[in-house]
Amino acid sequence: MILENNLFLGELHDLRKKQDGWMLSKFDDNTLKFARQVLALETSFYRQNCPVDKRIRSVTPKLVQH
User: Fold this and answer.
1) What is the CB-side half-sphere exposure of residue 24 using CA atoms within 13 A?
2) Tell me, what's the pLDDT at 62?
3) CA 36 to CA 30: how far, in whole Å?
4) Cα separation, 38 vs 19, whole angstroms
5) What b/e readout covers 35-54, taking b as 16+ CB neighbours within 10 angstroms?
6) Radius of gyration of the chain (CA)
7) What pLDDT digit, counting tens, does each position of 15-35 carry?
8) Euclidean distance between CA atoms 49 and 31, whole angstroms
9) CB 21 within 8 A of CB 27
10) β-pair partners for 12
11) Average pLDDT of the segment spanning 29-53
């Protein structure tokens, strides 16, 4: 069950509520609740007052074989 979702911080799951076999076609989903619509939060966007990101170094990938 996903408790929180954030573009930058990722998702917070409660794996205690995970139902075994949920991805199988024979899973009985009659006990699941429908998703509910929520209103978007009101927010204001502001110009960031910080330096832009800049490249500090480059790396070249190397093939690693065992």
Assistant:
1) 6
2) 92
3) 16
4) 25
5) eeeeeeeeeeeeeeeeeeee
6) 22
7) 888 888 888 999 998 888 888
8) 49
9) yes
10) 4
11) 83
Question: In the numeric block, which tokens belong to residue 35?
Answer: 């998703």
Length of the chain: 66
- Identify the DSSP state of 16: G
Can you tell me the distance from the alpha carbon of 18 to that of 3, in angstroms, rounded to the nearest whole number?
12
Per the DSSP assignment, residues forming a β-bridge with 63 are none
Both tokens of 46, joined, read 């502001």
> Is 12 in a helix, a strand, or coil?
strand
DSSP 25-46: TT---TTPPPP---PPPP----
